Amino acid sequence: MVRAVILVALATAGCAYNHHALVQRASADLSCPEGQLEVVRTDSEHRTVSGCGHQARYTVGESGWVASELDGRATPAAVDAGAPGLTSEPPPSAIEPVPPLVK
């Protein structure tokens, strides 16, 4: 019984550590105080963090939490890793047309 309680406590501590590390990273990436961040678990390895008008998606790996997308744009690390469907270019709707030259 005591062993089971210790294992549960250790597992919970690990999750708390990972969550806190994610919140610290997201706070820096989004320039937003930790208390204003909302973390949504999308699956066991991915989280979406929102706050201060910004949003980021994170993936957990061997080196901890890594942002794969910030404000709808892929991060350089995600593009370099060849993540499918990611590009550092803004979506077509975000590109403003150039007005014609007036002579």
What descriptive keywords fit this protein?
alpha+beta; elongated
Helix content: 25-40%
Quaternary organization: single chain
Strands of the widest sheet, in order across it, are: 1-2-3-4-5
Q: Output the radius of gyration.
A: 19 Å
Nearest-integer average pLDDT: 74
Q: How many helices in DSSP terms?
A: 2
- Our measurement of the CA-to-CA distance between the termini, rounded to an integer number of angstroms, reads 85 Å
Low-confidence sequence ranges: 4-17, 82-88
Number of beta-strand segments: 5
Characterize the structure shown.
- The protein is of the alpha+beta class.
- The protein has one domain.
- The protein has two helices and five strands, in the order H-E-E-E-E-E-H.
- It has a five-stranded antiparallel sheet.
Strands, helices and their partners?
Layout: H1 2-30, E1 38-43, E2 46-51, E3 54-61, E4 64-70, E5 73-74, H2 76-80
Antiparallel strand pairs: 1-2, 2-3, 3-4, 4-5
